[in-house]
Amino acid sequence: MDNVILLGGFSSFYTFYPFFCTQRMVLLEHERHTLTIYPSEILEEALYRGSASQASDYRIIKHIHITHHVVNATSNCPDAFPNTLCYLRLCLSDDAQQDLVKAQPLASRFDDWSKNKNGKEDTPTVHIERKFPVN
Q1: Cα dihedral across residues 75, 107, 58, 13: positive or negative
Q2: Which domains does the chain have, with CATH numbers?
Q3: Name one GO cellular component term (predicted).
Q4: Alpha-carbon distance 43 to 59, whole Å?
Q5: Which of 3, 98, 105, 122 has its CA at a distance of 20 to 30 angstroms from the CA of residue 12?
Q6: What's the Cα-to-Cα distance from 31 to each of 24, 39, 60, 121, 134, rounded to whole Å?
Q7: Is-contact 61 38, C-beta < 8 A?
Q8: 5-63, pLDDT tens digit by residue?
């Protein structure tokens, strides 16, 4: 897949992701830690992968237009907004031995169901627990 994030220049990027843009110059390491980290967009405007803390931040949920459906793929993180969002709970551990293949069919059915519910397409997100830093 080709990287197209800047296709159309800054104005196009700003149209889709205004919450990523700031007027501040971020030059120092400690300044970067004050920025909000958003989930990774796996499929453009269709699927995101984020951490449990990102899935618990309602401002992030609103910014990326998660309106109904979240896959909670953690072993011990509660659903953050059970009165607002519909969750599929997959009790998966965050380690190399976890077999993700068995969870895939159920997650796919949930994704299909979320796209067909009420005739509206929704943007699902998947959140996982992060015990180890990503290199």
Answers
A1: positive
A2: 39-128 (3.90.190.10)
A3: mitochondrion
A4: 20
A5: 122
A6: 10, 19, 19, 37, 20
A7: no
A8: 567 788 888 888 898 888 888 888 888 888 898 998 888 777 888 888 899 999 999 99
**Of 42, 32, 70, 30, nearest to 54 (Cα)?**
70
Bridge partners of 87, per DSSP, are 70
Tokens representing residue 13 in the block: 């990027």
Q: Which amino acid belongs to residue 29?
A: E
pTM: 0.72
Torsion of the alpha carbons at 6, 12, 18 and 20, rounded to the nearest 10: 0
CA–CA separation, 41 and 124 (whole Å): 11
Give the percent of the chain with pLDDT over 70: 80
CB 128 within 8 A of CB 74: yes
Q: Which of 73, 82, 80, 67 is nearest to 114 (CA)?
A: 67
